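dumping this here before i forget
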Amino acid sequence: MADEKKQEFRFLATGIGSVPYLDVRKTCRMILDRFPEVPFWPQFPKRSFLEGMIVQFSEGLPLLEPDEQEMGLQVSQKDRSSEFTRFWEHFLVDDTDYFAMSREHAQGLYAMIDLLKEKPEGDYVKGQSVGPVTFCTAIRDSEGRAVIHDAEWSEALAKGLAIKALWQIRELSKLGRRPILFIDEPSLSGFGSAFSPVERDEVIRMLREFMTYLRERCSVVLGIHCCGNTDWSMIVESGPDIINFDAYTYLETFVLYREQISRFLAAGGSVAWGIVPTGDQAGHASTQAMIERLGEGLDRLSGSGRSLHEISRSSLLTPACGMGNMSETAANETMDLLKEVSKQIRNPKHEIRNKVK
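structure:
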């Protein structure tokens, strides 16, 4: 975990990343209006396939090329040895500019940076990156095998994602707000099943190396986002500052790990509660139902040796997952609900706030 002072979020709200909109600047203004304390830069997968979670972070990485016809990535036919040599030449000299995300791949990042330059007040700004495990299991070689089983290639891709994240964090740091970076690992949903392509120790190693690389080079709050059920003790052991999960759907399974979560909180960790549903329940849950669900989770964790005050102080609120596959109307409702839940709970007169005084 970060050595710096423990974060005190106290139910501030932010987003995950993907949105269904097409108007970049309008979307950024909408996000800043709803979440001024912790704005996030939006990803626009419906605007361009280059902003899909995997393709968006592929620039500068060896043996990968965008494939517009397949709306994804393809394995380059370039010489493997030359590609790796070029990659390591730039990586080993910390050439972050070589690994920069272009405006074409990240319209929302550049637009949000421009907008926040006009409004410098605020404590935090949130970015995101696809995680190394998800990326290396999503990429397939020419024989259809996941790249995570290719040690040389997966190492380069994982380190490439890390230096790209470093570039992003340094850009966000220029805004005068403290950067938060969520490492998105949806492939860890259902971890431990017969279909898991990677071992537990390997997941921990990859995530630790990714976060250690960043902490040694910049000041950042690092979170891991997984929107499904997983082995949460594994996530704790990997050492993030924040754990973000779908609290609306998977609360019961998350609190099964309350002893590990308690130790995580005691060490300065925070929980980002994905309390507003984005899946089948989107649009069917009331503000009160979400607050009650959150209250249930807080009560369950506070019974594990941590006070309700401690847990609340280190709690963020988010949607359960990204909103890229939602309709614009549903996404609007989701952000409005999230804003309202945060507003109500942060009210000093609210029942949950009264409990933690």
